[in-house]
Automatic annotation (TrEMBL):
<keyword id="KW-0539">Nucleus</keyword>
<dbReference type="InterPro" id="IPR015300">
    <property type="entry name" value="DNA-bd_pseudobarrel_sf"/>
</dbReference>
<dbReference type="InterPro" id="IPR003340">
    <property type="entry name" value="B3_DNA-bd"/>
</dbReference>
<protein>
    <recommendedName>
        <fullName>TF-B3 domain-containing protein</fullName>
    </recommendedName>
</protein>
<dbReference type="Pfam" id="PF02362">
    <property type="entry name" value="B3"/>
</dbReference>
<keyword id="KW-0238">DNA-binding</keyword>
<keyword id="KW-0804">Transcription</keyword>
<feature type="domain" description="TF-B3">
    <location>
        <begin position="41"/>
        <end position="102"/>
    </location>
</feature>
<keyword id="KW-0805">Transcription regulation</keyword>
């Protein structure tokens, strides 16, 4: 099972999520296209649909766009929160992942760790 985690930036919260090339390589081939859809189940069992796209030329730089901002709003994510993706079935026609959002836990202005977000997943 391939996965990655990322601390969210303002671009990730306001526009799109940049994916790691490591995760991108674990997805099935785009078959000459620069767009693919993937599904991700959150900690509550809700399945999110995301559009994954790459640049047409140069470094692919995969990003999640469609569906991503709805996920951000639902989980009330902020800059500094963490997102974790793991690919569960890379052979499916639509790749299937597990996604987990985590909030920063601060004590005396220092990051102590991260706590899973267990908010209802009703968009």
């Amino acid at each position: 099972m391939v996965g990655f985690s990322k601390l969210l930036t303002s671009t990730d919260i306001q526009k799109r999520l940049s994916l790691s090339t490591k995760l991108f390589k674990s997805l099935p081939s785009f078959n000459g296209s620069h767009v693919q859809y993937l599904q991700a189940m959150d900690e509550n069992g809700f399945v999110w649909n995301f559009k994954c796209s790459t640049r047409k030329k140069g470094h692919p730089k995969p990003v999640l766009s469609k569906g991503w901002l709805a996920f951000v709003r639902n989980k009330k994510l902020k800059v500094g929160d963490k997102i974790k993706f793991s690919v569960l079935d890379p052979t499916a026609a639509v790749p299937f992942c597990r996604v987990r959002a985590e909030k920063e836990v601060k004590i005396f202005r220092s990051i102590f760790g991260y706590s899973p977000i267990t908010a209802p997943s009703i968009p």
